[in-house]
Amino acid sequence: MEQIQPENWVIMYFGLIFVITFAQMLVVYVLSDAGNPSPGLGLYTVYFMAALLGWIAFALQQASAMPMAIDIPSVASILNSYILFMAAGQRAGFTRGRLVLGVVCLLACLSVFFLKPRDMFGVQMVTAAFFFVTAGALSAWRCWRKGNVGDGIIGAAGLMMLFGVCGALYQWRVLGDFALAQAVIFGIYSSAYTLVAMGFMASMLIEYQRSLSHLATQDPLTQLLNRRGLENALHLTLAEASRGQLPTASVMVGIDHFRELNGNFGNDAGDQIIRLVAQCLQRLSRASDVVARTGGDEFLLVLPHTDLDGARVLAERIRQDIAERPLVVNQQRIPVTVSVGVAASLGETDLDKLSQEAHRAMHLAKRGGRNRVASVDNQPIRLSTQFGNA
């Protein structure tokens, strides 16, 4: 690149360094609490660091009295744009075309040895803009798919780069003002880079907030709802049952002898047993049923528009399915059984009532010998004799 002498270089570069530093601080903050880092985070971090080095190289070139033999800032700009493309692709789950575009990036970088400075400026401008626009398109697609505004900001950076390069090419090739074209490209690069940093930070904050909300309503081991998630999911369902005097049933599932299994075979086997039961409940329940893990080895299903007999049929299917699927750990078969309690009500009810009555029925099943189904229906409690093993 030829000499550009914008005013207040120090302020501009300190501002850019501050943006980079702030982005990195945010990344570290997010990673400190995130057990599952967001895709593309590592490559975005590499992009920010590489871009910072590129800006420093550009500043040194402008401050140097002697011209450099190789246009390092142009090469850095091409490489940084390609890294941005890879980061956006990884974040969007789109990794095709990396090899082909990597070859394009390599050829563009090698052209610095064969082209004059002005021609290299054109190659750098077009190639970097292409990668920027591609990264912006991938980010915009992810914004539409995930509803993350931060990715949309990165998409806007790609769009800005497209219009900026078109304007710079017009100034250079049509109006013949190469110096103005350089100034336009410098301003566009600075603005687009800042937008990428802002979009990245916003995207990470939005995902972090969603993750916190998700963790507040979901059990991390089974991916089922927890108690809070269950309350949120049932708010409208219970209100509808109250208005229409509709039946609502609850099924409480407790793993038999879970403490002994956990103690004999280890915590890993205990976690596998819990996941096994959770998968069974998800597989056998209907789309309208709400399934949650409410305790260490206890699960609650709430069945809208279901009476006691219908819930008992489902409870027996659950009991049989789990009993027929022993867990295999280190080639050792671990039999797993559950005791199931069923309760039902008609019309107005609440989650506490459904849970307590199903829990009471489950303890009846455990006292009756385990691996069986018991039920209550707002009448004198009775142990089920239709299902289960005596």
Can you tell me about this structure?
With 390 residues, the chain is of the alpha+beta class. The protein folds into two domains: 9-217; 227-376, 2-Layer Sandwich (Alpha-Beta Plaits). The protein contains twelve helices and seven strands. It has helices spanning 9-33, 41-63, 72-92, 98-110, 117-146, 149-174, 178-217, 227-244, 258-265, 267-284, 308-323, 351-367, and strands at 247-255, 290-293, 298-304, 327-329, 332-334, 338-346, 373-376. It has a five-stranded mixed beta sheet, sandwiched between helices. A two-stranded antiparallel sheet has the order 4-5. Strand 6, helix 12 and strand 7 (373-376) form a beta-alpha-beta unit. Helix 2 runs antiparallel to helix 3 and helix 3 (72-92) packs parallel to helix 5. The longest helix is centred in the middle third of the chain and has 40 residues, at 178-217. It is elongated and about 90 Å long. The protein starts with 8 loop residues before the first helix and ends in a 14-residue tail after the last strand. The model is unreliable at 1-7 and 379-390 (pLDDT under 50).
Q: Roughly what fraction of the amino acids lie in strands?
A: 5-15%
Number of domains: 2
Mean pLDDT: 81
Give the helix proportion (percent range): 55-70%
Count of alpha and pi helical runs: 12
User: Major beta sheet, specifics?
Assistant: 5 strands, mixed
